[in-house]
Amino acid sequence: MSPVLHTRRDGTTRPARHRAVQPPAVAGLTLVWLALWGDVTPLLLVGGVLVAVMVCLVFPLPPLHLSFRVRPLALVALVGRFIVDVVRASVEVSSVVLRRRQVSNAVVAVDLESSSDLMMTLVASMLSLVPGSVVVEARRSTHTLFLHVIDVRDEEAVERFRQEALALEQRLLRAFPARATGQEEAS
């Protein structure tokens, strides 16, 4: 694998270096640490930062480029709709289990519109958290998610699920639009 090159102001290039300890990664890992402990104390906070720094040094990540903004109203709408989807799906899965009838399942391919790996991860995570579906494969090269979905009786139900997944992606794109840096623009 060839090294990543950084172009200097004078036009010469040199191998790019990146910091192993990146503040966004340390912050995220510290939040995970606090969530695992289920409490926030000064000792846990300091311990979480130390563990996060150690993890970043032992397992260095490529540079994180978070090139999106947050739209608060769209984020509230996203979270509200997500809660409604979880409750609705929980009721549907419960009714499927209690009816004790033959259930037909399907693996549904969803071709995402966004080419962002972060967006693909967010869509996959949120779809997996809704009862009744789980991501079984994610193809980064084509930005396609394959989801196992329960109680899919016909092609119409498959298409309905696919449209719901794409609608979730659109809500995420509205809540976290890309910055205008020449990268993917949110519609």
From TrEMBL:
Pfam hit, one: MNHE
Primary localization: membrane
Keywords carried by this UniProt record: Cell membrane, Membrane, Transmembrane, Transmembrane helix
Transmembrane parts of this sequence: 20-37, 43-61
Coiled-coil segments: none
InterPro entries, per database record: Cation_antiport_E (IPR002758)
Subcellular localization, as worded in the UniProt entry: Cell membrane
Family from the record: Belongs to the CPA3 antiporters (TC 2.A.63) subunit E family.
Protein name: Na+/H+ antiporter subunit E
Naturally occurring in which organism (per UniProt): Nocardioides hwasunensis
